[in-house]
Amino acid sequence: MAGAADAVRATRTPASPHRVALVAFPGIRSFDVAVITEVWGTDRTDRGAPAFDLRRVAADGTTSVPMRGGLALHPDRTLDWLDTADLVVVPGLDDHLTPAPAPVLAALRRAHARGTTVAALCGGAFTLAQAGLLDGRRAITHWRLLDLLRTHHPRVTVVPDALFVEDDNLWTAAGTAAGIDLCLHLVRLAHGAEAAATIARSMVTAPFRTGTQAQFIEHPTRHTDRDADALAGVREHALRHLDEPLTVADLAAHAGMSPRSFARHFTAATGTTPLRWLLDQRIAAAQKLLERTDLPMPEVARRAGFGSEVTMRQHFAARLATSPRAYRAAFTGGSSPIPR
Length: 340
Hints:
This is GlxA family transcriptional regulator. The chain is an alpha/beta fold. It contains 14 helices and eleven strands. The strands form three sheets. It has a seven-stranded mixed β-sheet, sandwiched between helices. Helix 11 packs antiparallel against helix 12. It is globular, with a radius of gyration of 21 Å. The protein starts with a helix and ends in a 9-residue tail after the last helix. The model is unreliable at 1-14, 216-226 and 334-340 (pLDDT under 50).
């Protein structure tokens, strides 16, 4: 994970915008194109977000790329622009077995070989697999396409249940909303939690869903609808009291459930366990404090609910493959690198 974060965080001057290539060819999904454009193609520098240089890249830089619904994408760069990109993003496909043009596959292979971060949304995993980039590597796609990916690309290690995964600086995401999660996560890696939160607020979407959450969550039935408000109230309560030593038993009591029943309902509703969710929120809180303030490490740890700097450091190492001090240095203009 550290290597992936390093690769996203490309070396450039502070004023130089992050260069993002949207790879276009006939058959790409308009929804994914819209997501990529909304995240990296909208100027939010007046709200403190970083500057991006998003380019629509195609084999022929002058011919419009048709999409479903009568839409068309007008490229503004050829595939040569991938040589200068910091990040390459491949949209999903309307027909998941659509063959990508050979020049596109070759350009993706060259970009990855140079160390450029390459990401695919939903069925875009099939494009990376066509390029041979996922052979022997872990990947995810929409839950309904998992067997199709296994059948047509047996050398890919298909992850059965996740929102997004990374292997050797190749990122793949599950369907639709998970593509938004991955895009925001890539912003978070390159520019910090506050930048990702700024974009998420603008998009009116959740700023922090980890890739390990389940992508498919059963909708509550009528007899469990009554639990939804209780669980939402518990999450709100936990976020207000992150600095306290909360346990699953504490959260269950707040919801009026037994710990076992609470854990089961929480996982069914959110796709993750109460402990993992709570840890994710503590890490996100610590990241924001490290970016926004100059509070000493023990105080950051206390406010985020880790109890001690040692505990916070251990969780940062396990989840982010870095230390709190290195994280602060990387996202506040310091010179200390994120360790590999």
